[in-house]
Specification:
Blueprint lengths: L1 H5 L9 H9 L10 H19 L3 H5 L2 E11 L10 E7 H11 L12 E15 L2 E14 L2 E16 L2 E12 L14
Parallel strand pairs: 1-6
Antiparallel strand pairs: 1-2, 3-4, 4-5, 5-6
């Protein structure tokens, strides 16, 4: 993560082919999930949630592939990245910028930082090929800051790179809020 601050900006991997690829990803979920992959995916998703709850943003960033994407769509077009309005649509470079910005300590909307606790359930996994699998899970996130507890709920969709049948890195993380079509107040956390 520290090399991010010292390096020149890298070009985005988000292009027309990437948009098409994102639109095709949900089609993998048409069949039944693979129960044999569920336990290893749960362990990976729990580890990711723990890193975020402990504010280990650098370690979380390191879970993403170089062409990774963090996406939080809002509104009714949540499955079409070319048409969706998003709270976040961060490629690897932009995600690093977001984390570096959050770690400056000079961001009023993050002072004091929120204390968070995530709960993940209903994990389902589909193998795309030997190197890629998709998971869908439900999440609830409690965020406490300045005497107020906010609750966020929705589903996560992860496209994960596989190595020897185990998830190792995140190619895409999509957080779809159940209330994404309603006005959202300032999201000062990473979902």
């Amino acid at each position: 993560m520290s090399e991010l601050l010292a390096s020149d900006p890298q070009p985005s991997v988000v292009d027309a082919d990437f948009y098409r690829w994102l639109r095709d990803v949900p089609a993998v979920c048409a069949g039944p999930p693979d129960p044999d992959l569920r336990a290893v995916f749960e362990a990976f998703l729990y580890h990711e949630a723990d890193l975020l709850d402990r504010r280990e943003f650098g370690a979380w960033y390191d879970l993403f592939t170089d062409d990774g994407l963090y996406w939080v769509p809002i509104g009714d077009e949540a499955d079409d990245p070319a048409r969706a309005v998003s709270v976040a649509f961060d490629d690897h470079r932009r995600l690093g910028d977001r984390i570096a910005w959050m770690n400056t300590g000079n961001v009023y909307s993050h002072q004091p930082p929120s204390v968070t606790q995530r709960m993940i359930s209903n994990v389902m996994v589909w193998a795309v090929d030997a190197q890629t699998a998709l998971s869908r899970s439900a999440f609830t996130l409690h965020a406490y800051r300045r005497g107020v507890t906010d609750i966020f709920a929705g589903r996560y969709e992860h496209v994960l790179r596989m190595d020897d049948g185990r998830p190792t890195m995140i190619r895409m993380k999509k957080a779809v809020l159940i209330d994404r079509s309603s006005p959202l107040h300032n999201l000062t956390i990473i979902l």
